[in-house]
């Protein structure tokens, strides 16, 4: 177990927090519920951003930037949206401070805003208010815009990365001429998210749709990807919403169709946030520290020299410089830690804590033998391998590690997804073997709410392409045509 | 003159605004002084970001993210800083809205914050408060952190890109063990900015230092790069501050030196913003639209097919696909505009307005002759050239355009920088031939202020490596050892 990090079996929540602090990912700030993302944590966000941004652009999207502050009245325009977002939000009421004469800085009451401004909790309102000016005809459609931004939701119970008052995210907001096209976009972006989660985060996800209860405020349909964490709780990792014409109606965004008829524009929105970093940590890491999939690791390979005399280091450095060039040509990031202020053992512990996928150790005897010691973070296995062909060996190993981390998470999910047909069994499993519970549900909001109240389990999603199967609702015994996925969730 | 854009000689300020609106760069939002950066404008910001981010990383910096909201009390901790920034700022006082029962959304008075929060106008305070926890010993130094973020200053008179209440920027905040190292960092980052301005924005800049009057609130020394716009007004394009130990003292950030003594940490900060896009537009564009230097143009080459029949288009498309591959291999971005909804003439006007550096037009006769028509945006010259070797020709031309745009701006600045020795002449030139005025100044804040009050001209900077020259202050006649640069400024 790493120093200062509690075991995850002992206290999963504390383990998660310790890990983030000790690995220098993030820390809390003096402002309630807001976090400071430290360089190591931020470098993972940069990798996430770069990868997703390319995927968005490859599917035809462009970036833009809309204001941080939204007039209060905008929140009244879409009825269900106001319920969902107006409640817990940061409100700007004044635009000036002043010195009170005694050296205290106070709010200047003469600088009160006529209309209060809200720090965006999400940008549908300001964006659809803007689209009204951008869209006249079907020729102006589709609009495929994404924004990378900070947003704020005044959360009462916060947790680093998973739920913070301010967080970083991307929000796509698209406008279409037809419902079909908007739905296709919603589904496409869900698939982009699933692809990213599985192939970069090494995180298997269930693609599904939310029940009406769990939909985004203002959406006709919310698609989501749901992942299972190591403590058996589910985590919603991304959502993609079909908004119908709700926002177009609220902000009067009409267009002339090809048939020369006026109609309201169809909308989607979709987003993922710094929460993904929380999911990444929770799903793969262990008591020794982070375990990062190579594709998102800021440092993929670290080299630690083991030497007593400077000439030994010079010898090792020569070898490492060649390796560096070979790896960089393959697009693999490598760090040579030649600090003389730290012992090799301390370095080993540090990179283990930071989740660097591969560690190369080289001593003088290795230089004589033409070998190095390779240590994998995921399996903690070590082997002595030849220096010859090392770059190719590393390249192959990184792929193997990426696959192994994914497979481990997939096996865990498999082992912790259970079909349940009995409510008592359902409740027992939630406590004794938490995970995804696949169960029949009668399709009513009342039943869903009652199960939630009694067990704290929610319907995470109705999986896409769900198998149709006759059954009885686990709570009411009423008939049902398909199983849905329940879990306690973050 | 482009449709809807006034001539810059007629009304420079209106021309600037028209150009931004008509070229789809940005627009004002319903929130006073905040702008919406549209996809075309944002794509230029993305190029600026990517280029600078690489330059920062190449000089050893890493990115991080600090909270948007700063406790009000933090602003009282550094005396000169509070004067500079606490005045015009957005103040968050509440964290909830509620429904008043009549369907109105109002601020919930029960959700009043104990301490008001300020939307960051700049992040020195929150960052130095954080650094206290990061720094114990000289071994923790230097810290070389940069942040890409939005900030807010409640500006009364706003102008798209140049001065908006919310803007996007980067802010570097570094911590050092010695004053010398911090000063070297300040100077290094100024040179990074100057390099970027000259070699990417094609904008010649004067490197200099601000007078005490014009320094950043809390800095011991402010370095800046100053550029001259086409209307003869100066624009500060970037600043780099040596903050001494001011913020370390305000936030009690001490460290143990190598000599085992406690000392306060030395600081720098440096930033550039979306204002650079304003500078880019103002310095190169003309009455027909934007003129973008190839290195920052989102589209470097546009190809417009001229045809009547579909088989002609197919023929042209085949050629363009090959060209595309060749250009992309050279890292050159190309757009093939084969829309059948617009005539070639309309496309020509659109790309002229958007400042695309090179336009390729290809008709059926060209296909027969093995030629294309190449049109440069900067010189508006056209030539018919062979299809053979076109990619290399384009590559060379883009370099030539980049150099030409820079040279034109450098010549303009040269022609509009005047040495003045007489105050009446100084005032006359400001009205009749505005530009940089190089004049002697007695070094006092009083004289500087008086000249500003009387002429609206400020000392833009004391150029680095300034020639030492005996002279008399232009206002007071007192002795002076060097000329400084005056101008009216944005």
From TrEMBL, chains A, B:
InterPro entries named among the record's database cross-references: aa-tRNA-synt_IIb (IPR002314), aa-tRNA-synth_II (IPR006195), aa-tRNA-synth_II/BPL/LPL (IPR045864), Anticodon-bd (IPR004154), Anticodon-bd_dom_sf (IPR036621), Pro-tRNA-ligase_IIa_arc-type (IPR004499), Pro-tRNA_ligase_II_C (IPR016061), Pro-tRNA_synth_II (IPR017449)
Pfam families registered for this protein in UniProt: HGTP_anticodon (PF03129), ProRS-C_1 (PF09180), tRNA-synt_2b (PF00587)
Record has Nucleotide-binding as a keyword: yes
Record flagged with keyword Magnesium: no
Keyword annotations of the record: Aminoacyl-tRNA synthetase, ATP-binding, Cytoplasm, Ligase, Nucleotide-binding, Protein biosynthesis
SUPFAM superfamilies named among the record's database cross-references: C-terminal domain of ProRS, Class II aaRS ABD-related, Class II aaRS and biotin synthetases
PROSITE patterns assigned: AA_TRNA_LIGASE_II
Domain notes: Consists of three domains: the N-terminal catalytic domain, the anticodon-binding domain and the C-terminal extension.
Function: Catalyzes the attachment of proline to tRNA(Pro) in a two-step reaction: proline is first activated by ATP to form Pro-AMP and then transferred to the acceptor end of tRNA(Pro).
Annotated protein name in UniProt: Proline--tRNA ligase
